[in-house]
Design brief:
148 residues, alpha/beta, 5 strands, globular
Length: 148
């Protein structure tokens, strides 16, 4: 059975959030959280807007999803995020008990993989979905920032 609700479909939605962040002058990272093929949270980086180092896309999405569900645990949910979660976000995802994390671009310097951050034992993680699109947007953002 072929369904439109595959990883690429939801990663496109996360990339749309990253583009909103880009337009706001935020580091272009976007996220969506999905349960039963339904998006229950959309978010993007807001660290500059809120003057808050913790306002990463994942953190915003976790809060929105928990509010939607009426509880702090995100079991049976999948996070789609355009950049591999950092140590802080991975820690929050651990406590949320999210079932699955799908990221686009790997963060070779601050990602949870390179930092060896533990995720919840039941959380599955995979990467590389639409990696080029996410990486290109991040590269373009930093090229523009450095030229200012």
């Amino acid at each position: 059975m072929n369904t439109i609700f595959e990883d690429k479909y939801f990663m496109k939605k996360a990339l749309q959030e990253a583009e909103i962040a880009y337009e706001k002058g935020e580091i272009p990272v976007g996220a969506v959280i999905v349960i039963n093929d339904k998006i229950i949270a959309r978010a993007h980086n807001l660290s500059e807007t809120l003057n808050d180092v913790t306002a990463h896309a994942e953190m915003q999405a976790i809060t929105a999803a928990a509010n939607f569900l009426g509880g702090k645990y995100l079991q049976n949910c999948t996070l789609y995020v355009t950049l591999e979660p950092c140590q802080m976000c991975a820690g929050a995802l651990y406590w949320s008990q999210i079932s699955k994390i799908v990221f686009a671009a790997k963060d070779e310097q601050r990602g949870c993989g390179i930092m060896k951050t533990k995720l919840h034992p039941k959380t599955k993680i995979s990467g590389g979905i639409m990696e080029k699109e996410a990486s290109d947007l991040l590269k373009q953002f930093f090229i523009e920032k450095r030229s200012q």
